[in-house]
Write a structure and sequence with these properties.
Layout (H helix, E strand, L loop, with lengths): L1 H24 L17 E13 L5 E15 L2 E22 L3 E23 L2 E20 L2 E23 L2 E12 L3 E2 L4 E2 L3 E13 L1
Antiparallel strand pairs: 1-2, 1-10, 2-3, 3-4, 4-5, 5-6, 6-7, 7-10, 8-9
Length: 214
């Protein structure tokens, strides 16, 4: 019996180094770390925006609200792209006065829609983008006159240009918020078959928005 026990111990002693060598020879694997996705501004986006605008030389003022679509390209920290927006607007002003032969005459103007097609270029500090912008601007303006209980109106489509600047912050992987200032200048138009002409319309607008990035 002692001989059997001694033989068993001897076999175990001889097998232990071999097992240890076998374990040491087996490759060990470690799980690769999960890398966070690289943040980029490149791609399409759509959004909603709203704001407030005033005319620099008259009492025209009011709110606007609409939508935005655009595309960005990013090279290093430089971000550039194209953006278009369109908005319903309620920018109004009116004046009244006594006109001989007509009594009290009221003239009112209303910008009822506006939009832009702009280029953007900026510098990204991670999730924060500072940018300048400029391009084409349009607006639809309605001029109304009323006297002696009778009213007439005429609408004209206005062409112009815009420049401005803004800041945008990517607060989630596909969502950003922005705030921007735009200066819009529109050409003067003739209304009522040339009977009345207006000067340039120059708007200062501040608007905020939220965008979804694809």
């Amino acid at each position: 019996m002692k001989k059997i026990l001694l033989a068993t111990v001897a076999v175990a002693a001889l097998a232990a180094p071999a097992a240890a060598a076998d374990l040491a020879a087996r490759p060990t694997y470690t799980k690769a770390p999960v890398l966070a996705p690289v943040m980029t501004w490149t791609g399409f986006y759509i959004g909603a925006m709203g704001g407030y605008a005033t005319e620099e030389s008259s009492g025209v003022k009011g709110g606007l609200a609409g939508g935005t679509i655009g595309y960005n390209w990013q090279q290093g920290p430089v971000v550039y792209g194209l953006e278009a927006d369109a908005a319903w607007a309620d920018l109004t002003d009116s004046i009244s006065g006594i006109v001989p032969g007509f009594g009290l005459v009221t003239a009112s103007t209303k910008v009822n829609s506006t939009g832009t097609v702009r280029g953007r270029i900026g510098y990204a500090f991670g999730p924060t983008l500072l940018y300048a912008t400029g391009g084409y601007a349009w607006a639809n303006n309605k001029l109304s006159l009323s006297a002696l209980g009778v009213g007439v109106s005429d609408e004209q489509f206005l062409n112009g240009w815009t420049v401005g600047a803004g800041a945008e912050w990517m607060f989630a992987p596909k969502w950003s918020v922005k705030a921007e200032y735009l200066y819009k200048s529109f050409e003067g138009k003739s209304y009522f078959n040339g009977a009345l002409a207006t000067g340039d319309l120059n708007l200062h607008s501040v608007q905020v928005g939220v965008n979804y990035h694809f």
